[in-house]
Amino acid sequence: MADIRIRLAPALALASLAFGCAGTSAPSAESIGSKAAEDSTQQPASIRGGALIRLADEARLRGDYVTAKKRFERVLGFDPHAAPALVGMGRIALAEGDLDSAAAAFERAAAAAPDLDDPWLALAEVKARRGDREGARRDLDRALEIDGGRPATHAQYLALTGRARLKTARDLAAALETAEVHPYDPRARLAAGRFLASAGRGDEAIEHLRSALWLADLDPRAASTAWELLQQIDPVWSERRIVTVAMLGDEVVRGEPGWKFALRNNLLYAASQLAPILDTWFVPVRIGAVKLARARPDLPSLHAAFRDQVPSTSASAITASFTGLPIPNKRVGGKLGMAEFLGRTLSVRLPPGERHSRTLIHELLHIYGAIHVASGLESVMNPTGSSLRLDPLNYEIVQVMSSRAFRRGGFEANIVGSVDVEAAIGVYTTALRVNLRFRKLGALEAMEQSGGSRLLEYRGIVKARELDPHLADVSRLVASLWIANDRRIQGLKMLEIAGALYGRRTKDGIATRRAAEKLRVALEREYGLRPD
Predict the structure, then answer these.
(1) Could you tell me the fold of the domain covering 241-390?
(2) What is the DSSP string of 31-92?
(3) The pLDDT of residue 336
(4) CB of 300 within 8 A of CB of 226?
(5) What is the predicted pLDDT for the residue at 202?
(6) Tens digit of each residue's pLDDT (9 = 90 or more) over 56-89
(7) Residue extents of the structural domains in the chain
(8) CB–CB of 241/35 below 8 Å?
(9) For residue 212, what are the CA distances in angstroms to 75, 82, 153, 226, 274?
């Protein structure tokens, strides 16, 4: 398989914007798009109501119609005219193919709340399915009269009639002019994108809507609506997943003019490069500050200091921390980046003025399970290289792991149940064999070429056996996947390998060996064998 190049988007539209960014404090990420963070679902913007209605609709979106019906019925027991609950019941009926029940529920909702656009939008869908195009158009007109800014309504109108429904051409011109005058206003970008989409100018709309996502930390609600519209107007975006990122800068980063612009641009660059591979878009939902004045300059210490300052209640899927501190001398280490393997946090050294960080791409791929490759291989996963190509083995890995979740807990909690376990076992077992074979061959080569010098031989072997720091994590992950797949003997063998790779005296090594011993004893008891 040929190398897969991480492709640049045809144009990074925002890179040419003026330097600096308006706004100071960043809003929370309470409503940033569907497919975000924990379970990749979003409450539609049309649903208004209390917590029970939201829970009911979340169950409906998951396909758990039994739970959803019970919750909606409970709401209707308190208030038979609760329009959001009626709409929810109607959408379940629509999903089950019961058009008559769906229409009845939507009509009741429209009568109960004539100023709510949801029932009319849903009625239009029922009538369109029945072939009543004129009736569907009338209902869409009514929905647009109630809320003319709803992207879903415009998209449905365009799909039904083949033409846009704008009040006047001046509306579009005014929206474009406002977006040009206020390029850092997410709402202005959203309005321009919405009008362009309604006018059938999808490519232009996408650029403005992407800009609204790029500015998501300034207005999460506008970004959420932009994401909804992007999914409706472009088949590529309809399949794409959104992953939210909180970005933190240390004192040195914040000392640079336009530092928030720089962080956003680096994330945009990474998102554009990785989208063709992960089918994911990374969105900045918070840009904040951390203090590292007292931390040691080596990156492991800085990464630990960053993590200590990340709130445990952070709603973002990933936290990316940036330091502007220069690389210290080799004695204390000179890493450019660190990331939790299949975790949720990463740290990157960001030189002044850098807008296109290869290191950020490298560490984001670690978040998706990619591992280091040999220093001579052309790949973005070669930490000492400069290539943006992705080697075939890591391409296979991130393809399998691209559906990983971002819940609290270790990588087991975010992998098992979210990815194809058999495929994950296969790609990681191959990765382990390839890497360990490279290390073994490197050690033999070092011995042969030492020229009789024991010191050179020792140094060569140490270098050849310098394991990727994530290989032990890979072994432990494979062990967890084997065990979850009820193949505990294979899992035990892999746990033992992981313990050896972590090292006998390390915290992870001790914990992994204890887990292996516990599993070994359990297997011996189960099969009637005695421990050695």
Answers:
(1) Collagenase (Catalytic Domain) (3.40.390)
(2) T--TT-TTTS----TT--S-HHHHHHHHHHHHT-HHHHHHHHHHHHHH-TT-HHHHHHHHHH
(3) 87
(4) no
(5) 86
(6) 888 888 788 898 899 899 888 888 888 889 999 9
(7) 37-165, 168-239, 241-390, 420-526
(8) yes
(9) 35, 33, 20, 6, 19
